[in-house]
UniProtKB/TrEMBL annotation:
UniProt-listed Pfam families: Thioredoxin_4
Species in which this protein is naturally found: Kaustia mangrovi
Family statement drawn from the similarity comment of this UniProt entry: Belongs to the thioredoxin family. DsbA subfamily.
Domain of life: Bacteria
Record protein name field: DsbA family protein
Function recorded in the entry: May be required for disulfide bond formation in some proteins.
Chain ranges of the Thioredoxin domain: 34-226
Classification via SUPFAM superfamilies: Thioredoxin-like (SSF52833)
């Protein structure tokens, strides 16, 4: 999924979106993104700079001292991201994350207000429910993000699976601090690492762009392992 750099949300815009829930989804669920631009095209990144978390901290799977770190920037409304997470990621997790070879860091890079809303809901869930929520959101992407859907109600159905009440759900989508934190991750990804499409991966700082097959991840990981 390619970023229209003219529609990159700023932190201030994110606060406006979070404060106005009705306009947040709008009739079409895709409004409110203001202008900004990335500093440079995506390229290999300094692992030390890449390792710096956003204001809310990183969400990660695997051992902290794993020899290889994969950082993914993804959008919840990105079909290529959904395909990666439903088809490739389970095998990657079994082969490398669960065996202690890889630490997987997942970073929010919403392309539109609906993706931002989905990320906010995942962040509002208990921490141990974050990745299960991400999995379900990707698996059911066509349901809550599809044309003709009522995104607020469909997202609430998913949120309830984590034990979230309607009251907490509504409050979550108006939480300016969470919106600001997510957008800070996105802005840094675009401006410091040149990210303009999702999914974008870094394997120990080496760029791997797009929805790649498992074999390419295996090659990149094995090269990093030496």
């Amino acid at each position: 999924m390619k970023l229209d750099r003219r529609k990159l949300v700023t932190g201030t815009m994110a606060l406006g979106i979070a404060a106005g829930l009705d306009g947040y989804f709008g009739l079409n669920g895709r409004s409110g993104f203001g202008p900004a631009s990335a500093e440079a095209a995506a390229a290999d990144a300094d692992p030390a700079e890449l390792a710096k978390p956003g204001p809310m901290g990183d969400m990660a799977l695997g051992e902290e001292d794993a020899p290889v770190t994969i950082v993914e920037y993804a959008s919840m409304t990105c079909p290529h991201c959904a395909n990666f997470h439903t088809e490739t990621f389970p095998k990657l997790k079994e082969e490398f994350i669960d065996t202690g070879k890889v630490r997987f860091v997942f970073r929010e890079f919403p392309f539109d207000d609906l993706a931002l809303a989905a990320f906010m809901v995942a962040r509002c869930a208990p921490e141990d429910k974050y990745f299960p929520m991400i999995d379900i959101l990707f698996e059911q992407q066509s349901t809550w993000a599809g044309r003709g859907a009522d995104p607020r109600e469909e997202l609430f159905k998913i949120a309830k699976l984590s034990g979230m009440t309607r009251e907490k759900f509504d409050a979550c989508l108006k939480d300016e601090e969470i919106a600001r934190g997510i957008m800070a991750v996105r802005e840094r990804g675009a401006n410091e690492f040149g990210i303009d499409s999702t999914p974008t991966f870094f394997v120990n700082g080496k760029l791997l762009s797009g929805n790649r097959p498992l074999e390419e991840f295996e090659n990149a990981i094995n090269a990093a392992l030496g």
